[in-house]
Amino acid sequence: MSEKEINPAEVVKEFIRAMEVMDFDAALEHVAADVEYINSPGTTVHGHAGVRAVLEPFFAPILENNLSVLRQVVQGELVVLERLDRHRIPQGWFELPVTGIFELKGGKISYWREYFDLATVKDAMEHLMGEAS
After folding, report:
1. What is the pTM of this model?
2. What is the 3-state secondary structure of 70-87?
């Protein structure tokens, strides 16, 4: 497939599908080797190893995910997704509204930034842990 035939929205969709089932190897097939990943707030990493270093510990306690795309905007090689990420841990489900920015070069995600409210994660975890006690 030539670069002109690559559909950035489809690349990101396949990436999200792989992330949903926590298949990091399949997900990283859609990511450039020198990707810049910013997991807002506060963490910026580069390359596949950097992405794994952030995501694998986050997903480690998760039993199941549902990553629902609510809105999508595509402009050339830029894809913006508004999502509702639902994660099930042993104590139950928690939800995290997320906006992801993806820029592609040569059919691979070369820049990826996630925007979310850290307090939402903290509150959800406290709520779930409180229910477990």
Report:
1. 0.88
2. EEEEEECCEEEEEEEEEE
